[in-house]
Description:
single chain, alpha/beta, Hypothetical Protein Ychn, Chain: A, 125 residues
Amino acid sequence: xxxKLIIVMANTDPRNGEELGAPIFQATVAAAMDYExxxxxxxxxxxxxxKGVAEQLVVKAGxxxxxxxxxxxxxxxxAKFYCCSPNLDLFDMTEDDLIPECAGIVGGAYLxxxxxxxxxxxxxx
Length: 125
């Protein structure tokens, strides 16, 4: 059994809130099961790492819980969130713009190295 799970949110579009629940919830569950979990937000989902964005989104209309609440739950369970480095330029962000739950910035080599050299399983959204 893999000890690490990487969830790559690349095609998950923050403009469609119902797409955001599953990957973040699965990160929470895997972390609660004591797996090491990295969530890499890249492409359009990289916007979720910017302060103020996830706070404005909900998975289901009328829900009192925001996407940011789900991110905080996953983070508290032990999941680590990362912003892909090209997103800084793409969305005019700096490191200071990132939410506190973002563990840092990673590039494409990080994902490739983790998959090729480790006992890692990858889920993509």
